[in-house]
Amino acid sequence: MYKPTLLLFVAFFCINCSSDITEPTPTPSETLYFPPLSNNSWETKSIESIGWKTSSVQPLLDYLELKHSKSFIILVNGRIVMENYFNGHDATTNWYWASAGKTLTSTLTGIAQQDNLININDKVSKYLGTGWTSAPIAKENLITCKHLLTMTSGLDDTTDNVTPEKLIYTADAGTRWAYHNVYVKLQDVVAEASGQTWANYFNAKLRDKIGMNGLWLPMENNIVYWSTTRSMARFGLLIYNKGKWNNDVILNENYFNDATTTSQNINLGYGYLWWLNGKTSYHLPQSQLTIQGSIIPTAPNDMFMALGKNDQKIYIVPSKKMVVIRMGEAADNVNLALSDFDKTLWTKISALYQ
């Protein structure tokens, strides 16, 4: 689905890509930190200063490098605790988010709703017109924007092609969970409702407001976001703070809460394009099998995640005040979202603080 062949597009613009880091004077009571919008300086905290085990750092770094990682960041309370680059990657290099970028689409959909442009309970055809699928009109009209957010459109998931002739009826909307590219139709919904291109609305309403860099590029049957690792971390920090950047509400908390809790009763480990840890069961992409237990049993139960092909990761852990970012090639075999890498990686991350 997503192949890093588009590295030929390295004529990327990079906003705020300097790598200045400042070490703050410790304070008795630390507030949540947000890096400035005007430059890429970012406060840090040392492993020792937060009481973590320095002896566990090198085993984690060795594993990340062994598993074809390009970058890795841990934020605690907004400050960088670890930031490492591998295999020729650096702080100014853009890399693809793959399906981790689904959460960008989820967030923009929520922003469009709070702007009173859309309602996620409306049928998709209200915005795109009828015939956006090849399903019978009566079945197509069952599909709401919320069904796209929750992967329950009922459309055939055996192809990533989202042209109308390939969006084939399989089951009534809301009765079947299937990981599917059809969620990208939400981008068309937002573009139609806003009267702007998807990229322009995204840049104005999200990217520029939190100091991210990056751009959307076409890849096969999708458009995929590319950015620096710190930009991915900025987004993770926004979501960690329930949609607020400092005191600026980017995404309202009600939508955030809905997006990061179980969204339907089929796959308990799925919100609005976010994966949810710590549930009693979950489904994997391209499977109708219900798997018992937590998605990543070695990670905190309250963690929620943006997971992309070839192990692009945003992990958000409220109980630990943590945001964790990993970008790179596939750790092992090509995978759509989840892999065994997650379980082992979290064994090594948790060794830092246990």
List keywords for this structure.
354 residues; alpha+beta; six-stranded antiparallel β-sheet; three-stranded antiparallel β-sheet; 25% helix; globular
Structure description:
With 354 residues, the chain is α+β, with helices and mostly antiparallel strands. It is 25% helix and 17% strand. The protein has 10 helices and 15 strands. It has helices at 57-66, 102-114, 125-128, 137-140, 145-150, 185-194, 198-207, 229-240, 253-259, 340-353, and strands spanning 21-22, 42-43, 69-76, 79-85, 95-96, 215-219, 222-227, 244-245, 248-249, 275-276, 281-282, 291-292, 304-308, 312-317, 322-328. The strands form 5 sheets. A 6-stranded antiparallel sheet has the order 4-3-15-14-13-10, sandwiched between helices. A 3-stranded antiparallel sheet has the order 5-7-6. A two-stranded parallel sheet has the order 1-2. The protein is globular, with a radius of gyration of 20 Å.
Strand order of the largest sheet: 4-3-15-14-13-10
Helix content: 25-40%
Contiguous uncertain segments of 5+ residues = 1-29
Rg over CA atoms, rounded to whole Å, is 20 Å
Give the SSE string. EEHEEEHHHHHHEEHEEHEEEEEEH
Strand content: 15-25%
Largest sheet: 6 strands, antiparallel
Global shape: globular
- The N- to C-terminal Cα distance equals 37 Å
Helix/strand-derived class? alpha+beta
